[in-house]
Specification:
Length: 344
């Protein structure tokens, strides 16, 4: 369903019918003090435009709803779950409500969700994952974002989409991943593998590029056979590690582009009769809750979930209130050294 074609407001109905907004409102609410001829004219325009009034309030002016729409990729990813939880906590503390839309990566339903949630008269949107995190999103998706952003502020977490009224809150993942690569090198590992999620996404491509650049800076050759890409799932981490362990010449350390992959990778090492970190060192990224409790606890990079979520909400609140708000805010990440890496 296209917003570009279907988005009609009460102002459009009034203009096309040649009446006031108040008259359109009276027709919509069924009030009697409208001439029959006028009522029929307005109703005809409503029918022709397939106009659907706002589901919460048939607003006669642009008023604040104290609601923010949050579109998030499937909640199987602990990183997304934690961000949503932190955003909900902060919204509640400032008298706001979050309206969630769950993106189905297979259906690619961002546009439909955007259309549905916008009808609830939200004050803005937060995007977490999905097409917004692709290196090259399709033009049709960008057109929809641009169209909505002309009316409502949109904040992207760990993305790089830039339109009018669009804001970005992100972790400097390139610098953060370089930090953990340098740590592995400081442990004297020279045979280093990499397990990633889906290609074509910012969070994947940036880390692959940094991995290769940092190895090259340290005069190490990148073995493409040791770079395995799959999905950001535990099972994918396990299958990728199984593939690496089957090699005659295998890496002594394997870096994962998130902790979910690292969990699967470590599990597969033990299932193969080996141990972490004695036989293979493993690192993650994100520092999800389970990472410090897993055995062995995972060496990883901690993203500041609280700040990512709070700043995303604050940017919408600032925009709505007319306050100045930086277009982009970049956060540092912290290296957490635990038990999953061995010094050679």
């Amino acid at each position: 369903m296209s917003l570009l074609k279907d988005h009609i407001t009460i102002y459009d109905i009034a203009r096309r019918a040649g009446v006031s907004i108040a008259t359109v409102s009276r027709v919509l609410t069924g009030k009697a003090n409208v001439k029959e001829e006028t009522r029929k004219k307005v109703q005809q325009v409503i029918n022709e435009c397939n106009y659907e009034p706002n589901l919460i309030a048939r607003a006669l002016c642009n008023r604040i709803s104290n609601t923010i729409g949050l579109l998030v990729e499937e909640l199987s990813n602990p990183f997304f779950v934690t961000i949503c939880n932190e955003a909900e906590i902060y919204c509640t503390s400032v008298g706001y409500t979050l309206l969630f839309g769950i993106i189905n990566s297979w259906l690619g339903n961002e546009t439909e969700l955007l259309h549905i949630i916008e009808k609830r008269q939200v004050d803005g949107f937060i995007f977490l994952g999905g097409k917004a995190n692709q290196i090259k999103p399709k033009k049709s998706f960008l057109d929809e974002i641009s169209f909505v952003a002309k009316r409502l502020p949109i904040v992207f977490i760990n993305s790089k989409i830039d339109f009018e009224n669009c804001y970005i809150v992100r972790t400097d993942e390139k610098q953060a991943f370089a930090k953990i690569v340098r740590y592995i090198l400081s442990c004297n590992h020279k045979k280093i593998g990499l397990i990633t999620g889906e290609r074509g996404f910012v969070i994947t491509e940036e880390k692959i590029a940094v991995f290769k650049e940092t190895l090259a800076q340290n005069n190490l050759t990148v073995n493409e056979e040791w770079i395995i890409s799959g999905q950001y799932l535990v099972d994918s981490g396990a299958s990728s590690m199984k593939q690496l362990l089957s090699l005659k010449d295998r890496p002594t350390a394997v870096m994962c582009t998130n902790d979910t992959l690292a969990l699967g990778a470590i599990k597969q090492v033990f299932l193969s009769g080996l141990t972490v970190p004695d036989d293979v060192s493993v690192t993650g990224f994100d520092d999800i809750f389970i990472s410090k409790h897993f055995i062995p606890s995972i060496t990883t990079v901690k993203q500041d979930y609280h700040q990512l979520a709070e700043l995303a909400v604050k940017k919408i609140l600032s925009h709505v209130s007319g306050e100045h708000c930086p277009k982009e805010t970049t956060l540092d990440a912290e290296l957490n050294i635990r038990d999953s890496c061995k010094i050679l």
